[in-house]
Design goal:
The complex is a heterodimer of chains A (547) and B (283).
Chain A lengths: L1 H15 L7 E2 L11 E5 L18 H7 L4 E3 L13 E3 L2 E6 L5 E6 L13 H13 L15 H6 L8 E5 L2 E5 L7 H5 L24 E7 L3 E6 L13 E5 L4 H10 L4 E3 L3 H8 L8 E14 L9 H10 L2 H7 L4 E3 L22 H10 L6 E8 L2 H15 L3 E8 L1 H8 L7 E7 L5 H9 L18 H12 L3 H17 L3 E13 L3 E2 L15 E2 L8 E2 L4
Chain B lengths: L1 H9 L1 H23 L36 H36 L2 H16 L2 H13 L8 H27 L2 H8 L4 H37 L11 H8 L8 H30 L1
Helix pairs in contact in B: 2-3, 2-10, 3-4, 3-6, 3-8, 3-10, 4-6, 5-6, 6-8, 7-8, 8-9, 8-10, 9-10
Classes of the chains: A alpha+beta (547), B mainly alpha (283).
Chain lengths: 547, 283
């Protein structure tokens, strides 16, 4: 048996090591070159290209390419984790904010047009933001409630928010009822893109202002975007097309990448990441970056045993976060809360709960669970989540908490997670819509985020002190003071152990040698606005010279 | 008896099969004393600096898996679960299949026809698809979390072959002179079945059992591979194959170990079945 195993190993190693170095290399040409198609793949399918609906991070691959917004973000760089979080002009060339923080005035770029040639007017923004408020369950309606008159539109007693004003075709004014320092971030979301006044956004026929426009969509199979020649910055958009394959599992993506069928592979499965880590020939083409993703486990604080803060703290002490980081091949950092280290408000004085099983057992005993308890734990059905769940299961078993892991497909997992009657203990993720602490705190820990179905506050945590603090922080315009307020908020949810905090993941992506100026972006995740293909004079990738 | 035993040993295939099966069974039975805990992850010591599985070494003969667990311990313990499931399922399938086969062979054409059409109906479904459907449905019941859904599924998809083969033999026996004589003497159907027919189909049943057992191992592995086997962290060969599949390049021992284990066991049981069949042929 051993001999047979050894032989099989040897055979597999022999097959596996055949010609796996990059097949191409960059050309000596260092100036961006226009033309070509970037081939990509994604794990899920596209459900909608309607900016009223499509707001999750998967749809962001498309919505960011199709829909420009008033303000946008700087490109990210490999060295600076905060790069990519700073605002820069988008469809607006300039904006002013009144001293009381209640009036935002945007000046639009001259001669803006949609991809079909229709001119963009300030009234288009008013139309779209009103639609976001009118539509129940819209992408960002709930984030716009500080705009004067917005609550009436949401309630259905008005069709237009009086705070949205277009005094001239190139001027947009937004009057707020209460200051909201996060407004620019909200307006940078693709959901705040303009749509021609009176045109209802369409799921399959997006009309946008972004660098790309939809060419074809074979649902469930492939989405092809092509360059929008009417984009305001078209001179710096180099690719002719973006060709996305839908529903390609991550391990298959990597195989396709190696065969040269796709040009980038992101969020690698552990075996592929491990393999890549020991391939020096690929090292120059691995791109890493910060993400604004936080991972942990929700504990429904309204049901036993999680209604006792000591139980929640005990679990935080029981979980060894270093195990999660290890199982993610170090492409993660241990978390003490929901804010990634690069965001303002991150409390650097806090450290993740140390792994302390003795303390966990003492807390459980004090809470009335000296022998621990049995609990179901629900995760999404993928290898990475199951591996991490197995590690969590072992860590918690050490303190007497017996976890029964159950995995669910994404389609059933999400509604369960967002329901009050769903599993009290489940893997939870928060992906930031915009790089601001307000996004996470208002949605995850504010009382307003609680709903019986479709809750954004996954732990059903309600704390009037925190709510009051968040209201002050949202209105605070001085960035330093605001950061201090969120640090206080972090301390509250840290001590209350609202989640079982776990880790913040880093982005790891590998690209073909001819893919230039491509870097994972903390907000946009995939940002190909200025990517170009570094091909040879014949328009083909340059074959790799023998080392 | 001695002559039979000598005869089996004369057949090389049966001997090799017997040794393989015996070895696998011995390891499975002795697993708790031979190896350590196969289910608890060892993230700190069982993984490489990069967080990947460790290759075979003197401390972990077959390396470690993606959670740092000893692969040898998992293969041996996995054999325990796989063989237990296959044994239970084979026994149940043999009992049901033999019962139905004998009943059909002895009963009149109407009962025989009804039973065999039902068998045809079950056989008409692709076995693996049926198994996946059943396993998925049974997991929704209160039995989820135990081995029961897998065992029940395996029984339900595999008793039919036995029933068919046994029925052919039983109906031949039913027309034999011994059975006619017994009938003439007023023997009850029960007596005929237990005294005259069952002993006659016994050798077929044993050979069938060995083949069925090998198939059970494969179907169990397939079910575990698609996530419908015994729930994790239990080690089963199919699940180990599934969990190791993506590591074919960075940690090939993760598919080699359970793959070879399945191969050896299935070959062992098939060789044994061949030997048993050959013995029957000679008699």
């Amino acid at each position: 048996m051993m001999r047979g195993g050894g032989l099989a190993c040897a055979l597999l190693i022999a097959c596996g090591s055949a010609s796996t170095d990059p097949r191409w290399q960059p050309s000596p040409n260092k100036t961006p070159r226009a033309g070509g198609t970037l081939h990509l793949a994604m794990e899920f399918d596209v459900n909608s290209l309607d900016p009223l609906v499509a707001a999750d991070e998967v749809m962001l691959y498309f919505t960011h390419a199709l829909f420009d917004t008033l303000v946008t973000y700087e490109p990210s760089t490999p060295d600076d984790p905060r790069a990519g979080l700073a605002f820069r002009p988008g469809l607006a060339t300039a904006w002013t904010i009144s001293d009381d923080g209640l009036l935002y005035t945007f000046t639009l770029r001259p001669a803006l047009a949609y991809s079909d040639g229709t001119p963009v007017a300030a009234a288009d923004f008013v139309w779209m933001l009103d639609r976001q408020l009118q539509k129940p369950g819209s992408a960002i309606g709930a984030m716009l409630l500080d705009i004067a008159g917005a609550p009436e539109v949401v309630a259905g007693t008005a069709s237009h928010a009086r705070g949205l004003v277009a005094p001239a075709p190139d001027t947009l004014e937004i009057h707020l009822a209460r200051p909201n320092a996060a407004l620019l971030g909200i307006l940078a979301m693709p959901a705040a893109t303009p749509q021609p006044h009176g045109r209802e956004p369409d799921r399959r026929a997006p009309l946008g202002t972004g660098p790309y426009t939809l060419e074809s969509w074979d649902e469930g199979e492939r989405v092809v975007l092509r360059k929008n020649p009417r984009h305001w910055d078209a001179a710096h958009v180099y690719l002719d097309k973006l060709d996305f394959l839908e529903n390609v599992p991550r391990d298959l993506q990597f195989l396709k990448f190696q065969r040269g069928e796709i040009d980038t592979a992101e969020h690698l499965e552990a075996p592929d990441a491990l393999w890549l880590a020991v391939q020096p020939a690929w090292a120059p083409y691995v791109r890493t970056g910060q993400t604004l993703q936080s991972y942990g486990s929700r504990m429904n604080v309204t049901v036993k045993p999680f209604d006792d803060v000591r139980v929640r703290q005990a679990l935080n002490y029981a979980l060894d976060k270093s195990h999660s980081v290890r199982l993610l091949q170090d492409a993660a950092v241990a978390a003490h809360g929901i804010l990634p280290p690069s965001l303002a408000g991150f409390n650097a004085h806090l450290t993740p709960y140390p792994h302390d099983p003795a303390r966990a057992r003492a807390l459980l005993a004090a809470a009335g669970y000296p022998d621990g308890f049995d609990i179901d734990y629900v995760v999404m059905a993928n290898d990475e989540a199951l591996r991490l769940a197995a590690s969590l299961q072992a860590d918690l078993a050490e303190v007497g908490v017996h976890v029964h892991v159950r995995s669910e497909a994404f389609a059933t997992f999400l509604p369960e997670l967002m329901s009050r009657t769903g599993p009290p203990f489940a893997k939870a993720t928060f992906g930031f819509d915009f790089p601001d602490a307000a996004d996470a705190f208002d949605l995850q820990f504010g009382t307003a985020g609680i709903a019986d179905e479709g809750t954004s506050n996954l732990s059903f945590y309600s704390n009037p002190t925190l709510d009051a603090l968040l209201a002050v922080a949202r209105a605070e315009r001085d960035p330093a003071t605001r950061a201090l307020l969120y640090q206080q908020a972090e301390l509250i949810v840290y001590v209350d152990a609202v989640w079982l905090w776990d880790y913040h993941q880093k982005a790891v992506e590998v690209v073909q040698p001819y893919v230039a100026d491509y870097q994972p972006h903390p907000v946009w995740i995939r940002d190909y606005a200025h990517t170009w293909l570094d091909l040879g004079p014949d328009g083909e990738p340059v074959p790799r010279a023998a080392p | 008896m001695l002559r039979r035993v000598t005869w089996i040993f004369a057949r090389r295939a049966a001997v090799v099969g017997g040794i393989l099966v015996g070895g696998v069974l011995l390891l499975a039975v002795l697993a708790p004393w031979l190896v350590g805990d196969p289910t608890t992850p060892h993230i700190d010591h069982g993984l490489s600096a990069l967080g990947g599985p460790l290759p075979p070494s003197s401390t972990a003969w077959l390396g470690t898996d993606d959670l740092g667990r000893d692969e040898w311990a998992r293969v041996v313990t996995g054999g325990r679960i796989s063989l237990l499931v296959a044994t239970l399922a084979t026994l149940a399938a043999m009992v049901i299949g033999t019962g139905v086969g004998v009943a059909a062979g002895l009963a009149g054409p109407r009962i025989d026809g009804a039973l065999m059409r039902f068998v045809d109906l079950v056989l008409a479904f692709p076995a693996l698809l049926l198994a996946i459907l059943l396993a998925a449905l049974l997991r929704e019941t209160g039995l989820a979390g135990s081995l029961a859904p897998v065992v029940i599924t395996l029984v339900l998809v595999s008793w039919t072959t036995t029933a068919r083969v046994i029925r052919t033999r039983a109906s031949a026996l039913a027309r034999s002179e011994a059975v006619l004589a017994a009938r003439a003497l007023g023997a009850t159907p029960w007596r005929i079945a237990t005294r005259h027919v069952l002993p006659g189909v016994g050798d077929v049943a044993i050979a069938l059992a060995a083949v069925t057992f090998a198939q059970m191992l494969l179907v169990e592995a397939a079910l575990s591979y698609v996530g419908l086997g015994p729930p994790p962290p239990a080690a089963t060969w199919g699940r180990m194959l599934y969990e190791g599949r993506a590591y074919y390049r960075s940690a090939p021992w993760l598919i080699a170990a359970p793959g070879v284990a399945i191969l050896v066991s299935v070959i062992g049981f098939n060789l044994l079945a061949d030997g048993l069949r050959a013995r029957r042929g000679r008699r």
